[in-house]
Amino acid sequence: MSLLKSLTSNSSAFNFKPSQSTIAQTSPYRVLLRTACSSSRRTNSIDLFYSRGISSVKVVSFSNISNYCTYSRDNVCSSKRRSRGPVMAGKKASEGIKQEDGKYKHTVDLPKTTFGMRANSSVREPEIQKIWEENQVFKKVVEKNSGGNFILHDGPPYANGDLHIGHALNKILKDIINRYKCHKCVQQEMYPCLIPHAHFSHSPFLSLFHTSLPLALLSLSLFLTSHTSFIPMYYQIYYIVIDYVQKLSLDQKARNDLTPLKLRAKAAKFAKETVKKQMSSFKRYGVWADWNDPYLTLDPEYEAAQIEVFGQMALKGYIYRGRKPVHWSPSSRTALAEAELEYPEKHVSRSIYAIFRVVAAPLAPSSLLQEFPNLCLAVWTTTPWTIPANAAVAVNPKLEYAVVEVKSLQDQDPSSGGTIKKGLGLVLKDEKKPFLIVASELVPSLEAKWGVKLVVKTRQLGSDLENYRYIHPIDNRECPVVIGGDYITTETGTGLVHTAPGHGQEDYVTGQKYGLPILSPVDDDGKFTEEAGQFSGLDVLGEGNTAVVKYLDEHLSLILEESYEHKYPYDWRTKKPTIFRATEQWFASVEGFRHAAMDAIGHVKWVPPQAENRISAMTASRSDWCISRQRTWGVPIPVFYHLQSREPLMNEETIDHIKSIVSQKGSDAWWYMTVEDLLPAKYRDKAAEYEKGTDTMDVWFDSGSSWAAVLGKRDSLSYPADLYLEGTDQHRGWFQSSLLTSVATKGKAPYSSVLTHGFVLDEKGFKMSKSLGNVVDPRFVIEGGKNQKEAPAYGADVLRLWVSSVDYTGDVMIGPQILRQMSEVYRKLRGTLRYLLANLHDWKTEYTVPYHELPRIDQHALFQLENVVKNIQGNYESYQFFKIFQILQRFVIVDLSNFYFDVAKDRLYVGGSTSYTRKTCQTVLAAHLLSIVRIIAPILPHLAEDVWQNLPFQYITQDGSVAEYVFESRWPISNERWLSLPVEEINFWENILELRTEVNRVLEVARTGKLIGASLDAKVHIHTSDAGLASQLWKLCEAKNEADTLHRLFITSQAEIVPSLNDEHIANIPYSGECLIQGKNKVWIGISRAVGSKCERCWNYSQQVGSFMDHPTLCSRCYDVVALQMPSEVAAVS
Ligand SMILES: [Zn+2]
């Protein structure tokens, strides 16, 4: 375009005459418009334009004195109306649009790549996974690691059904760590003797800058720094077995038909099939593991190791058999561990206030009984069915109790009725009312609750009530009042506690002190036994409860029944209520090694740190661990019982013998082999006197033995593990059971660090449930839902990006909106990588420009890159992936594309294919590509591999071989030289970037005011009274290489430092603004139209356009490029 054409086409811009205030209001920026068009100028904009055109000549002469610099193209990034300069010229030409720009299209270096903008993940990700699998990439990477191990021990939780988003969170977190450790050489500290650290401050990339060293030699020395990290991940299945059996239990007949061996065979088959299915899902998430060799708790080797752990604990005296109340599930007919319980909302119990008649008092000068012959103890319970097992009433010795007289029953029903169901007992309607003992503090609330007047007659301390005796309301036994513990409070009830040692943990402990009988007249199905007399055969949670309440009322022992909502333990599998019930069970005595366990907790690193408090509190307060279960699947408790004496037989010889049988034949042998065969030779002649035990071990004992069965048995692994990583619920589950078995047998924790994550909620923070319709299924996230518009196929990497973005230390959220955001971040990241690939299409490693020869902007870019790599590495090490996500988003997507990439386009596209500044830029871009692709690889392995497979050049690893896959390239080695940029230089670039932002704001206003279209149409004028800053800016104007010149950084055609702001100068600048740099240095920024004519090739304005006879539309830079690159061809075209 000629200058005249350009003027004409742009002159219309000056017909629009916004007032100053309009611009100030509509502009989002705080730009000061000091001198924008005076009214006289606005009335004649065309004239103004011409006059400006003429004055530009003067400016040039002026600028010759005041350090003036020239030319550029392209635009500010913030504008949507971004002019793409030479790119557009080239594109338009290639699209066949006839225009003059096309003449130089062959001289423009347009980006080129085979790497697609769209991820097409549903096709591409499986292709990449196939490449990994077929080429055994994981195995190769692992095998090349020859140093120490990092053991991330994969745990059993979460595998109790179809995979859900919680599994994805857990397994992907593990995979990010696994891949990072595989990728990264973590063991330098452990093997300092190999090669001193200092030798390796340069990356192979940088080393290539110093081409004097033979490549092979370099590679060898660097190779030695890379030690191994190998994390096989295993997968555990026993929950699936249980689920299967649970399904079976719905059909009681089918279950009855199964012999234990048939049941076990079916369960194992089902389990193995499910494992296969789940594995394929995990593989689709991109989880790398030794899937061919998982650990299964039903493997004979595993089972034998578990029996070994049990045996070691038994021989140390930590295993005992006792009759104790345990959580019992009538619906699955077995004891349950705390970790097998759940506490659903809104459980309602039938609570009762019952009274027991006092019949005797300890010998004392004055007993209450003499004064109040009709005296009763009032108790409160939420489990009326435990009254038949009552053995005592417990009081708190420090509490004050009152004897009250019940008076004046109010007519209306008791207060606080509402939705709570209440029923008053007959005793209150009886004429002869008893005197009651209750905690003094509770008198007012009981009056309100019962709807009576309670007159306090006298008071006594709880300790004075000890050894009063009362008559059991059902079977007329005489029972004592006993002193209980601090668990007796005045929060609820009466302050007196009905004590049934067979049905409660605290009751049991109190009972032990007083030698109370452990009554538990309830069978495996949760029905009263004959011991319960008239209630025999009734279901304790149903009609049994009703019968007891009715009986008490009829016998004037019930004051009130009311419904009561509270937390109550349910069986996590059947979702039905459990009971506390005393049975003969095997226990691990936690008391025996509690101190050691607490001590071991202190030696473990807990992430987040507050997890230590949780597990400490749980371990400190836990009672002995009931490890026996009444099931026919699982690992048997290796014990024989004497037929007559019922004495158990279990010692080192018997356990060893069973262990060796199980290791060969599996635990089925316990069921199909005879007692004679199962006993060691020494006891065989007595086989007829014994029978096998029928209990199996708690599943938490199964999983809690994995450190021994897996870490302790496989050659490639070691104990303790470096890391366990599961959900927070495992503090009372796997983390704890593993800790207890390991401390009991080895005296230390099985892990050196433990990481916990929260649960996944929907994006409003609600729990996911089918009824709410807010469930996010990882399969649909990856493959897309039925409606691909609403639920597109995002692919595994978007899911993984989400995992990296959340702060997993608390509960995390996911939903359609969040996934859309993730997909957008992914898309931008992909775009960034594509930019890098496309601008390196003609790059070769040997073109690398030595660091000390790089322009300042390039050295600074490498400094920033290295900082980011270092920072991200630190966050991988501390497992703070959400910080990596934030850094990536900020640096890769925002910073790079807003500044370096934006500014770089000029020299990349039009600087000339072989020009120095294009080479330096590509040197920097190659460093960015190689670093970014490797640091994102643990989180986004498919994207990273896709980039790697499209690399336009080969990457040589430290050992001199070509890295065919991204994980063969290893983690970037830190580069101290790039980091050692002087502080002044760092500060300087901070100033420049800040100034650039301000310049962009004024440019935007000038664009809105139609002075300019693209930023290349502009010339920037800068004045600052800060001498230091001014001199720095002058230096940039004079920069010896084009890459550092100030107007290139602004992407304007010209930039000028104005030594002083006189009125004459300001009068000629239509748009201006002021700002503070670093909050202190005042800078004035002016924008005018660029001087000279627009170069056809690069769209920069220059006064040299028109001065070359053979290329009259080119600037001198383009003239040099064109003349050098294709003199004959271009000459022919023109
Ligand atoms: Zn040009």
Task: Walk me through the structure.
One of its GO terms (biological process) is mitochondrial translation. Residues 128-186, 247-813 form the Aminoacyl-tRNA synthetase class Ia domain. It is an enzyme of class 6 (ligase). It catalyses: tRNA(Ile) + L-isoleucine + ATP = L-isoleucyl-tRNA(Ile) + AMP + diphosphate. Keywords: Aminoacyl-tRNA synthetase, ATP-binding, Ligase, Metal-binding, Nucleotide-binding, Protein biosynthesis, Zinc. It is a single chain. This protein is of the alpha+beta class and 1134 residues long. Among the domains are: 300-333 and 582-760, 3-Layer(aba) Sandwich (Rossmann fold); 345-410 and 420-568, Valyl/Leucyl/Isoleucyl-tRNA synthetase, editing domain (Isoleucyl-tRNA Synthetase, domain 2), CATH 3.90.740.10; 786-980, Orthogonal Bundle (Isoleucyl-tRNA Synthetase, Domain 1), CATH 1.10.730.20; 983-1091, Isoleucyl-tRNA Synthetase, Domain 1 (Orthogonal Bundle), CATH 1.10.730.20. 41% of the residues lie in helices and 15% in strands. It is built from 42 helices and 35 strands. The strands form 9 sheets. Strands 6, 7, 8, 9, 10, 11, 12, 13, 14, 15 and 16 form an 11-stranded mixed beta sheet that branches. Helix 6 (121-134) crosses helix 35 and helix 14 crosses helix 28. The longest helix has 29 residues, at 881-909. The chain is elongated. Bound molecules: zinc ion (ZN).
